[in-house]
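User: I'm writing a tutorial on reading structure tokens. Could you give me a worked example: one chain, its sequence, then its tokens, then a sentence or two explaining what the tokens reveal?
Assistant: Sure. Here is the example chain.
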Amino acid sequence: MARPLTQIGRSATRLDGRAKVSGAMRYAADVERPGIIWGKCLRSPYAHARIRSIDTAAVKKIEGVFAVLTADDLPRRLVGRRLKDMPVLAQQTVRFIGERVAVVAAQTPEIAEEALSRIVVDYEELKSVHDPIEAMAAGVPVISTTIGAEGLDVSPGRNILIADRETEWVPALESIAAPGALRSELIREGRQFVDTKYDWDALGAMLRETYHDWLKR
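And here are its predicted structure tokens:
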């Protein structure tokens, strides 16, 4: 005889639900230990800009600030999950709103916030790219100038990684933040241009046309 089901069809209570909704749950930011050091990051307000200079002199005079770091204080090392093209702190340029530009370590969160407000960054705002399809066109700003240094083949003057096989460019299209129907259409249309060497002008034009036609529907 089958055992009766005791949980399926019933509303389950989260084990941590009561603590979270009552405010009793303790998170990492709630834990304080003697001698704890607080770190905060200064982030870029621009989508694309050149960093002309960073002045941290005023920060170093604040009592309770232990350290302030910029890219000049760190090794030239790139990190990333799929592509190692991201500096720990922005080097010479910022490429998206919120990119880390500097970091401070201080005695309290309030002192750390005060330290961030004293950092003076001189930016030169540059033209930015906001459309993944338009980013493949010739003449648009090349956002990543570090990918080539990582041994990856980059189409000159383009925001494009050169691939030789469908198995390399199709996953890239599948990662586009667009509805599944649009991604499928881009992949289907893109296969018409697949060869051992891509005609990037034709492929880029086709994908842009398909993308904008889809937006008009």
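What the tokens reveal: The two ends are 56 Å apart (CA to CA). The chain has five helices and eight strands.
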